[in-house]
Amino acid sequence: MARKTGSNGKKTARELRIAATRLFAKYGYAAVSMRQIASEVGVQAGALYLYTPDKQTLLYQIMDRHMDDLLEAWRAQAPSADGDPIMKIEQFVRFHIRFHLNRGDEIFIAYMELRNLSEDNFKLIERKRREYERLLGVILEEGNISGRFALCDTKLSSYAIIAMLTGVSTWYKGDGRLDLAKIEEIYLCMVRGLVLNGGSKTQS
Questions:
Q1: 56, 121 in Cβ contact below 8 A?
Q2: Which CATH architecture best describes the domain 1-52?
Q3: Residue 185 near residue 192, CB atoms below 8 Å
Q4: Which of 27, 74, 136, 161 is the most exposed place for a label (fewest CB within 10 A)?
Q5: What pLDDT is attached to residue 199?
Q6: Is the dihedral of CA 120, 92, 79, 105 positive or negative?
Q7: Cα separation of 129 and 14, whole Å?
Q8: CA-to-CA distance for 163 and 149, rounded, in angstroms?
Q9: Same CATH topology for 1-52 and 55-198?
């Protein structure tokens, strides 16, 4: 099978990532062969190795790019350090929902295929995941210190908030009962309830 007409190195590499992402999400990493990926891209199976040394590296590259895009996007619009904690958490909620909403395949891979990463690759991806969780944790800790929030454990709360917000991408449909603006407001209400009341430090 010849390379697609008009393709070039960068275009083929991009198509490779897109095809692998789609196939890994649909069938699972273990069930997908390099030959299947090559067929989706329109190249000979052997040509894939011009762009990636093996399937493991391809899985890592997909996850790594997702995390880099996430961290870069947040830092580009993160609130100022002296901002109000309530404003910061609201901005984080809106950002997280909007960033992940149309990335269902990437999110599925990022969570469900971690077990298929090599030990070294897992450590690299986990480090970036922890960095994103830390950025939210800083907001929660600032809120606690200022007295605006009442959380008994900011680290655990950051896990809960991220898991809750990420879940939107698994069920959201543009033609559903609620539009995106309404969904954001509902999730903002739930997160406010958590940080202001749900984890009160005065509870036993």
A1: yes
A2: Orthogonal Bundle (1.10)
A3: no
A4: 27
A5: 52
A6: positive
A7: 23
A8: 19
A9: no
The rounded Cα 36 to chain-centroid distance in angstroms is 25
CATH 3.40.50.1000 applies to domain 55-198: no
Q: Residue 163 in contact with residue 201, Cβ under 8 Å? A: no
Does residue 60 come out as left (phi exceeding 0), alpha (psi in the -120 to 50 range) or beta? alpha
Tokens of 87: 């404003």
* Residues 6 or more apart whose Cβ sits within 8 Å of residue 117: 56, 59, 60, 63, 125
What is the pLDDT confidence band of residue 3, given thresholds at 50, 70 and 90? very low
Q: Is 6 exposed, middle or buried (0-12, 13-18, 19+ CB in 10 A)?
A: exposed
pLDDT for residue 198? 56
Of 115-124, 129-138, 180-189, 190-199, which gets the smallest average pLDDT?
Answer: 190-199
CB within 8 Å of 133: residues ≥ 6 apart: 155, 158, 159, 162
Contacts of residue 153, Cβ cutoff 8 Å, sequence gap at least 6:
199
pLDDT in tens, 96-144: 999 999 899 999 999 899 999 999 999 999 999 999 999 999 999 999 9
The closest of 30, 31, 120, 17 to 63, measured between CA atoms, is 17
pTM score, whole prediction: 0.86
Domain boundary assignment for the chain: 1-52, 55-198
Q: How far apart are CA 61 and CA 19, in angstroms?
A: 13
